[in-house]
Amino acid sequence: MEGRVKRMGNKGSAGFWWCAAAFALLCVMGTGSCAAPDTSPVTEVVDAPVIDNAPAKTLSGIAVTTPPSKTWYNLGESLSTAGMVVTAAYDDGSTGVIPTEDITATGFSSSTIGSKTVEVSYGGQTAAFIVTVIDPNPTITTVTLWKGLTAPTATTARQYSSYQGKPDVLHIAPARYRRRVCLERPVIQPGRVRRAGNNY
User: Fold this and answer.
1) Residue 47 pLDDT level (bands cut at 50, 70, 90)
2) Where are the domains of the chain?
């Protein structure tokens, strides 16, 4: 009935014995265990998400800390960045080496001789290094007059179409002298012998 609870076993011993008998019957018909059921609350363990509150660092610059192993090229050769190390700097003061495959290199051309500035870029930042392109087979001409200048006496002047990446270079070196050799016959004089081939 609504609003009222009638409890068993409150009046007389008959109700008590009836309850005991019913409980024993349930134990026999069940698993044989008459232990009271576990009514303790069940706690569910849930993995909470890990929140990283550390601020993201920002790339502030890059630098070529080690240039490539190859910095001299012949005409027509391709650029090689082997051995190059590029380091990134961040706004939190930390640094790190950038993988070579993540770096873009531009500005190289081996179609002409001279110094070439190669620019590397990463994450919107840039750095640069210098290489030199040379002609392995320059034209060499012996001259006495070069750009209005007369070669000094007793010198040999050679004009190179290019030398170490620089075009139209003049080399001046002292002329070589041959020692004159006397080929006269031996002259026999009292007390001395003069042999052919003596220098004079």
Assistant:
1) low
2) 59-134, 138-200
Q: Would you say residue 196 has pLDDT above 50?
A: no
Predicted confidence at residue 172, as pLDDT, reads: 82
| CA pseudo-torsion sign 184, 185, 190, 191 | positive
pTM assigned to the model:
0.56
Characterize the bridge pairing of strands 72-74 and 125-134.
parallel
Q: Which CATH number does the domain 59-134 belong to among 3.20.20.450, 3.10.20.30, 2.60.40.3630, 1.10.3720.10?
A: 2.60.40.3630
